[in-house]
Specification:
By secondary structure, the protein is α+β, with helices and mostly antiparallel strands. It has two domains: 16-26 and 173-308, no CATH class; 35-170, no CATH class. 43% of the residues lie in helices and 12% in strands. The protein has helices at residues 16-25, 35-44, 49-68, 86-102, 107-117, 175-186, 221-229, 233-244, 251-256, 265-268, 276-286, 296-308, and strands spanning 122-129, 133-140, 143-146, 160-163, 169-170, 189-192, 205-208, 214-217. The strands form two sheets. It has a five-stranded antiparallel beta sheet with strand order 4-3-2-1-5. A three-stranded antiparallel beta sheet has the order 6-7-8. Helix 1 (16-25) crosses helix 7 (221-229), helix 2 (35-44) runs antiparallel to helix 5 (107-117) and helix 3 (49-68) crosses helix 4 (86-102). The model is unreliable at 1-11 (pLDDT under 50).
């Protein structure tokens, strides 16, 4: 079968959308520490690891307490807190850590302030942990610091600190990798989105969660932006992989999603049976800056349509 490769964006000035995609590509992506980062970590944090763990546990207990007492509100989940609240807990602890470092009042916060002041990396990170689930954590120089370690297995300690290379966290860049971990971690069912061909280059995954609710993915900013910046080749590879494996969206699932057609032109073209000629034509347009996928107006219109449909 002849494949039509997505069009590469022409060389030239970076557009506002290109700039946004560049920022999103690095969203919560871990950075392998170099020798300088290792040296900074050893100098400022090596002597204080027990105190660092105690600080992270203190901050985590504060998040738990504020949530229990109603001062912190998290969205509803299928499971009881803390299971499934990895992102919310990690974000809350990270913000509190930043505030403590900004006004250091203990030896460990003073060490962290000195570490950051000399260029030490302190950032949220996200990826696939040990091939089993998505995890939000923090990178503190050469350290992996997880303040939501109990959000998958609730009997685990709340905090885990390891050398980054021993953590088992790996970046998720390709759509197929995202889909593989999502299937293992979330349950439910993953399908290739051949149903709405205009959306397939950007939202190639149709996910039906364990409660039967449909969503379009990837919802990771990094994976989403990496796919778009690459002319949606990652999405095409995933769709072709699913096709070659004989995994085709069932007719009953396609019929159940027919109401999405009312949400405008991005949805109204619906193909219950995969139309690969049409899909390849959409992918060929996905990297063209003159087409709606990459124009600011077209991109915003697409995202608004997907939100209206409740598909994200």
């Amino acid at each position: 079968m002849t494949h039509t490769a997505p069009v590469r964006p022409p060389m030239g000035a970076e557009t506002p959308l290109d700039r946004q995609l560049r920022l999103w590509r690095n969203h919560h992506r871990l950075a392998p520490p170099d020798e300088r980062m290792r040296a900074l970590t050893e100098r400022w944090l090596g002597p204080h690891l027990p105190s660092l763990e105690a600080l992270m546990l203190e901050l985590r207990h504060g998040v738990d307490r504020d949530r229990d007492e109603g001062r912190l509100t998290f969205p509803k989940r299928r499971y009881a807190y803390p299971k499934g609240f990895c992102r919310e807990i990690s974000d809350a602890v990270f913000e509190r850590l930043r505030r403590r470092i900004a006004a250091p009042d203990t030896p460990i916060t003073q060490a962290l302030a000195a570490f950051v002041g000399e260029g030490g990396r302190l950032s949220p990170i996200w990826g696939a942990l040990r091939g089993s689930y998505f995890q939000n954590a923090m990178q503190v120089g050469a350290l992996y610091v997880d303040a939501a370690n109990d959000t998958v297995t609730t009997t685990k300690p709340k905090v885990e600190i390891l050398p980054l290379e021993e953590s088992g966290l790996e970046p998720v860049v390709e759509v197929a990798h995202f889909a593989r971990i999502a299937q293992v971690y979330w349950g439910g069912t993953i399908w290739a989105n051949t149903l709405f061909p205009r959306l397939a280059p950007v939202f190639p995954i149709l996910y039906i969660d364990p409660d039967g609710r449909p969503r379009l993915h990837p919802d990771s900013l990094g994976v989403f932006a990496e796919n778009m910046a690459g002319g949606c080749r990652s999405a095409l590879a995933f769709l072709e992989q699913e096709r070659d494996g004989g995994r085709v969206l069932p007719a009953d699932v396609a019929a159940a999603l027919a109401p999405w057609r009312t949400h405008g032109p991005w949805f109204e073209e619906m193909c219950p049976t995969p139309d690969w000629d049409r899909l390849r034509a959409c992918f060929a347009q996905a990297g063209d800056p003159q087409r709606p996928y990459r124009s600011a107006q077209g991109f915003v219109g697409m995202m608004e349509a997907v939100k209206r449909a409740g598909a994200v």
